[in-house]
Design goal:
The protein is mainly beta. It has strands at about 10-15, 20-25, 35-50, 55-60, 65-70, 70-75, 80-85, 90-95, 100-105, 115. It has no helices and ten strands. Strands 1, 2, 3, 4, 5, 6, 7, 8, 9 and 10 form a ten-stranded antiparallel beta sheet that branches.
Length: about 120
């Protein structure tokens, strides 16, 4: 069993992109199968086009972004869910004046990130 307050979890800046940070809510050490992360991308920020070797399941908590998945752009917003298969290139560009926040669940496997 594990209970934490998000207020006590450090936010780590992400080198790639602009205005992005991540909180590791449930780490691979905490749970056997999946990790849960919370990402924040500040208004006007972005994450560049990249691939991961693990799939992503995402739930948008706040804000609006133009998400490009495998060359197809979609506008996503609060309460949308996104599935990104392993190895599929994707990026995020924040729309509007509100920060974009989402939960991201990934399997506890080695994840290699490559800029596309």
């Amino acid at each position: 069993m594990l209970i934490k307050s998000i207020k006590n979890i450090q936010s780590t800046p992400i080198e790639a992109g602009s205005g992005a940070s991540m909180q590791m809510l449930i780490s691979p050490e905490d749970a056997p199968n999946f990790a849960m992360r919370k990402f924040t991308i500040k208004a006007g920020g972005f994450m560049p086009y990249h691939t991961n070797t693990v799939e992503h399941e995402q739930y948008v908590i706040k804000g609006t972004a133009k998400v490009n998945i495998a060359g197809k752009e979609s506008i996503v917003k609060k309460d949308d869910v996104i599935f990104i298969p392993a190895g599929v290139a994707h990026s995020y560009h924040i729309e509007g004046n509100e920060d974009y926040e989402f939960l991201c669940l990934v399997p506890n496997k080695t994840d290699k990130i490559e800029m596309a």
